[in-house]
Design goal:
Elements lengths: L12 H92 L1 H14 L11 H60 L11 H4 L10 H107 L11 H64 L7
Family: Belongs to the tektin family.
Keywords: Cell projection, Cilium, Coiled coil, Cytoplasm, Cytoskeleton, Flagellum
Main location: cytoplasm
Amino acid sequence: MSRLMGPPQKFMPPEWRLANQLQYVSAEAERARSERLIAESKRLMEESDNTAKRMQRDANQRLEQRIHDIKFWRQELDQKLEEIVQEIEVLIIFKSRVEKALESCAEPLRVTLLCLEERQKRVAIDLVHDEVERELMKEREVIEGVEALLKRTIEQTNEQIRLNRSAKYHLEKDLINKFQAERIDNFCSILTNNSSSLDDTAKETGITVPFNTVTPEEWENFSNINITKAEHEKNNSMSLRALVDSLLEQTAADISRQHHITSTALRLQVQESKTTKSQLEDHLAKVLSEISSQEKNLEALHVAITDKEAPLKMAQTRLMARSQRPSWELCHDPVQVRLLEEVQELMGHIDRLREAQAQSERELKALIRSQLSLEEEVQVKSHSLYIDEVICTQLCQHVAIHSF
């Protein structure tokens, strides 16, 4: 224990001097290293400060350029969106015109079918496949063809409106994304190193690149595709509108032309039916007059036959009486000859008169049959005239063809 607590070791002066010298050299080296570190630190701080400022300036310039690009594409998208929205509204109006045109076909078609149905009620020989019926059937075909064409046009218009709305949707979606991107980039452009909205957590995620990031070329191409698609659909829509305009005008002209042809044929048929009915009535009047004459002739023949019966009976009575003469008095004298001649002649006249009477009766029956036939035919013509002139003509007069 005494050895442990003994006096400390003592050094020699050279050792003491050497130790001091070593301390000087060590301190000088540490100081030199410190000076170099301070100089290097200053250089690094200046370099980092300059680099940060340079990069911030570059980032700000790029942000400004990016905001300018976004605004440019927003203007392009806005313009195209306005055009496609206007085109949709105009196309909807055109669709309404086509629908009205389709609705307007219902009444002419109803009238045409009703006229065909009414004309089927004609009877006897008047149930003829005439020019009016042919034109009515053609009018039905024209209207039904127009209806089918207008229905297909409505389907095409609906499809084009759907395509226009699809283009509008993509433009609007792109615009919303551009607006959000511009808002974010505007926020980034006004940030400073002293801004209170700096986020400490951003340093953990700011250096990572999102997996769904696109290149600037892809970004521009996306908006360009949306604009090109909208322009394509707008051009298709304008072409469809021009087609609809031409179609509405042409279909209205076709229906109107055919309706005019049908009306003209109906008018001519009415005139012809009136002429025929008038001629039949004239013949009927003549037949009636002839019937009256034939009845008078038949009555006169009956009187003539009756008038001849008394002379015949008298001549026959004389012959009968003279046949009772006795013996040689039963002579074939001139009286007997004359009485025989008188009986024969009277019987001959009566036979001829009766033959004439029978022929007159046959002719009277034939005239009566002709009368009945003519009366029936006049009734048929009156019935047909009522259908054509009263029903069909009035129905056709109220048909209005519009070009919507």
